[in-house]
Design goal:
Elements lengths: L1 H9 L20 H12 L29 E2 L4 H11 L6 E3 L16 E3 L4 H14 L4 E7 L2 H17 L3 E8 L7 H10 L6 E5 L2 H13 L7 E4 L14 H4 L3 E5 L22 H22 L8 H4 L4 H9 L3 E2 L5 E2 L11 E9 L3 E10 L3 E3 L26 E6 L2 E9 L4 E3 L5 E3 L4 E3 L6 E3 L2 E2 L6 H26 L4 H5 L2 H22 L4 H11 L1 H26 L9 H25 L4 E4 L13 E5 L3 H24 L10 H24 L6 H24 L1 H9 L12 H18 L10 H6 L19
Parallel strand pairs: 1-2, 2-3, 4-5, 4-6, 6-7, 7-8, 20-22
Antiparallel strand pairs: 8-11, 9-10, 11-12, 12-13, 14-15, 16-17, 18-19, 21-22
Helix pairs in contact: 1-9, 2-3, 4-5, 6-7, 9-11, 12-14, 12-20, 14-15, 14-16, 14-20, 16-17, 16-18, 16-22, 18-19, 19-20
Amino acid sequence: MMFAIDLINKDPELLPNITLGARILDTCSRDTYALEQSLTFVQALIERDGSDVRCANGDPPIFTKPDKIVGVIGAAASSVSIMVANILRLFKIPQISYASTAPELSDNTRYDFFSRVVPPDSYQAQAMMDIVTAMEWNYVSTLASEGNYGESGVEAFIQISRETGGVCIAQSLKIPREPRPGEFDKIIRRLLETSNARAIIMFANEDDIRRVLDAAKRNNQTGHFLWVGSDSWGSKISPVIGQERVAEGAITILPKRASVDGLEKVGRDSSYEQEGKVQFVMDAVYAMAHALHRMHRELCYGYPGLCPRMANNIDGKELLSHIRAVNFNGSASTPVVFNENGDAPGRYDIFQYQITNRSTAEYRVIGSWTNKLHLKVEAMRWRTGDPSLPASVCSIPCRAGERKKVVKGVPCCWHCERCEGYHYQASEFTCELCPYEMRPDSNRTGCVPIPIIKLEWHSPWAIVPVFISMLGIIATSFVIVTFVRYNDTPIVRASGREMSYVLLTGIFLCYAITFLMIATPDVGVCSFRRIFLGLGMCFSYAALLTKTNRIHRIFEQGKKSVTAPRFISPASQLVITFSLISVQLLGVFVWFAVDPPHTVVDYGEQRTQDPMSARGVLKCDISDLSLICSLGYSILLMVTCTVYAIKTRGVPETFNEAKPIGFTMYTTCIIWLAFIPIFFGTSQSAERMYIQTTTLTISLSLSASVSLGMLYMPKVYIILFHPEQNVPKRKRSFKAIVTAATMSGKLTQKGGDRPNGEVKTELCESMETNTSSTKTTYVSYSNHAI
């Protein structure tokens, strides 16, 4: 650590004009003692109350505080780091460890000020799991030293084995902190109870590793166990001295490390090599220095040395953010970075303890792990001399299409049974019947989907309705643009602008639904189908019903009095219309709540004994009954509107649109009467999907086309080609309108008594002043004084 601090203080680029210092305390590898020592780090941050204390001369006391600590490097043991981190976080002092690897320290909610330049054991456990998987072992035991390091490491390994599957834990044993005599012999005997689980996953300290190997040697189990050791074993010599044979073939892992230049030897003639943690100690010190450098550049830019913002009090939380953001090449020329939990990325070397020529024992690198295992299997050596991988399984794997029938009480031992019929191998232990829409594949390891068909855009069944809809959308858009362009002209005003735009919106939706009906069904498409399937018709017929009802009420009221009926203003008409539309929307929302939209594949009767000939139809889960219910309200509005159109058929066309509306409704009823037998009469046809979709979309488009053609095309024609007729006429009172309607009715009755129904309409002629008899008079009821 002091070597790293000296290098930083000599570096003119890193923390220039700033000298780092250190207060070094020994934890003695004991968490309780380390807790006492860590209190000295926070003494400078604790305010002492001296109000009740006085010196002999009566002056208040002066408390001597130690220098403030901005960060802590350490500790090595995970249990010590956990204890210290709990104190430092209270005072927001960042901590960087160079050797603590317990997964518990990755909990950013509990150890938010803790970071480390070594990867956590969760990565190590994943690397060990990848090794076990690569070795094709599926039956292993675990052995851990009691404490945070051993227990959390094994727990992480077991958790990964549960998540990934394929590896069973035969036994999970724990070595006590203070083992009694014979404890290790007992552990070896317990491991031999599941002798097929030869692979032993070890998260233990050096002393426990040495004593486990010694116990295996005493029990004549040399060569039986396949040891897989964590970084506490690594490439250390002390655990294997004197018991090389029993340790032969052991696979160990160690975080990638390298010797630091300038510290190759302790002395010129010394035989002691550089300790493996030196690289990480230096990386931890440099990480703190780089964080302080970044903080200085941000808070004291251009200021030589410490500016007041850093000299007086350094915000630990702000320093922590700079620590998490560092990114530099460490002493081993590997990037030093931290993730959001303060963990370093997992980079490990994989060793195997080998004895070459039956004499020399050494650790040899056989691979590496950096988020993925790279293992040189050909470089591995085993005690038997056999190049093939040793086994650690309870039973041989079953062949494809066979399930494992587990022996009771032994979860990783099984018999193999073949899956028959329409069953497939669903997992290692079960054969299941393929779903209704699937069949087993050739080797019975899974099910393959039965081909699914749907209405394609290039199908003739889709091209025709799409073509009609596109023409309709273009025509509707043209009418809307024309009405907006000539919004204040008499014809547009006479047709009731507000209601016309509502009606045109419904017509547009009737055309647009075609694209939703042909689009590939999914949740979104099915949702829109439910909403817009009946909404377009509802818009149209709610507006038409409101119009015809208004006309009917006006002339019915006129027969009784000259007082105008209520709710005939444009605003009232809009409220009535949208009230009618809201009923449709309410029904749709109830439908959504009761039965959320989703897609289904309807296989019907196409499932044959030969699964290869089966077919399914992808569609929205809308039954025929649901379809009728969705369209039923719109059809009710249509029928009611037709009734009112019949009632107002005798009103003079000079004053209203009753007759065009009537013709529209008669034609629409004919269209839908033809739709019902075609739609439901093909329910058993093989082409049911195509016929029903095409029939429904064309019926909607034809209904919209009738409304558009009879109600708006004549108006657009006059607006564009006969603007001389699009001029204002004199206003008439409600009394004049009623009188005209009454007289017209009488004249109509008299005309019925004459040959060919001829009658002279003196009333109409007298009211068409300054206008030729061939012109049509457009009068909006909203312009009348009523």
